[in-house]
Amino acid sequence: AQSVTQPDIHITVSEGASLELRCNYSYGATPYLFWYVQSPGQGLQLLLKYFSGDTLVQGIKGFEAEFKRSQSSFNLRKPSVHWSDAAEYFCAVGSPNDYKLSFGAGTTVTVRA
Amino acid sequence: EAGVTQFPSHSVIEKGQTVTLRCDPISGHDNLYWYRRVMGKEIKFLLHFVKESKQDESGMPNNRFLAERTGGTYSTLKVQPAELEDSGVYFCASSQVSNTIYFGEGSWLTVV
Questions:
Q1: Cα B33 to Cα B57: distance, rounded to the nearest angstrom
Q2: Could you tell me which of B90, B89, B52, B50 has the C-alpha nearest to residue B69?
Q3: With contacts defined as CB-CB under 8 Å, which chain A residues touch B55?
Q4: Distance (Å, rounded) from C-alpha A16 to C-alpha B106?
Q5: Can you say whether the dihedral through the CA atoms of B99, B104, B107, B108 is positive or negative?
């Protein structure tokens, strides 16, 4: 069975500082990996995805994530955080053979001025 | 292009009542999914339609939940009778291929 762990429940970061959100997954083969963001009062928006190929993927809003097979990780990064990045972030894993996504518990990001 | 739309956005009902949530997927998307997040828990898969057929309903919690997708277009999720533990956010999502799933804004259900 596939599963996702987001070790950090809540992160506070200063505006303009860098941000890294951790995600570890458990899956027997090469997974499909996703990061979604939910801003207050909004739905889930897809930030980026990894299926194969280049292990560093670029997403929307200046986010990027790196797939590290040896560490079973797919951490999300942003070099300089904006106040609008305050939201809850979800890592998810899927597979080529199964349409179900398994989500992590989410990490809430607070941005301070 | 319109995204996945859900209605109602918020609903407050009493225990024992019935609520029906509706989802309109992105036009042309054969795959439609329901997920939910109850308070303090993870987002969990409920079921998956391919067109009008239920492909996988392994995540449906019990027989109080009934999902339909008439004609392979919009879908409804009915909870009858609602219990307190059903409170949470119900997300609908759709995709054309499995690797890119788009979610709606969610229907926030509160059972009192």
A1: 10
A2: B52
A3: 99
A4: 30
A5: positive
Contacts of A92 in chain B (CB under 8 A): 43
Residue B4, CA distances (Å) to A55, A110, B102 in order: 29, 27, 7
Structure tokens at A106: 């989410």
Q: What are phi and psi of A46, to 5 degrees?
A: -75, 125
Q: pLDDT digit string (tens) for A23-81?
A: 999 987 778 999 999 998 888 999 999 988 889 999 999 999 999 999 999 999 999 99
Query: Nearest CA of chain A to the CA of B31: how many Å?
Result: 9
- Residue of A74, A41, A100, A46 whose CA lies nearest to B43: A100
Q: CB contact, 8 Å: B53 with chain A?
A: no
B102–A46 C-beta distance less than 8 A: yes
